Amino acid sequence: MKRFNKFINNARYIFKPRYWLMNYPYSEELDAHIRRGLLLNEVELYSEFHCRISGVKIWIGNFPFAYATLEGWRASRSTIDELRKKILTIKLASIRKELDGQEL
What we know:
The chain is an alpha+beta fold. The protein has one domain. It has 3 helices and 5 strands, in the order H-H-E-E-E-E-E-H. It has helices spanning 2-11, 28-39, 77-100, and strands at 43-45, 50-53, 56-59, 69-70, 73-74. The strands form 2 sheets. A 3-stranded antiparallel beta sheet has the order 1-2-3. The protein has a two-stranded antiparallel sheet with strand order 4-5. It is globular, with a radius of gyration of 15 Å. The N and C termini lie far apart (55 Å). The model has no long low-confidence stretch (mean pLDDT 88).
């Protein structure tokens, strides 16, 4: 059953051509670190191209080819999706905060 669930989870990427080519090989350790940081809400935007997750600087440039990478390793495609949603939420909150201080 576990293998079937894994197959179903990965099958959705068959229909997303942008995920077919990834620049780096998958790392289970990096994936676990990012997932843990997402669960504990320890993700902060460091710069336009980096974020910090539990104190570790992760590359978040050029989505999805090299997104969520560290030293030549990458997270899983589903973790990349989750991290991107979190980063976009952080950026949106920052924009809202800036706009709250301005009069329209």
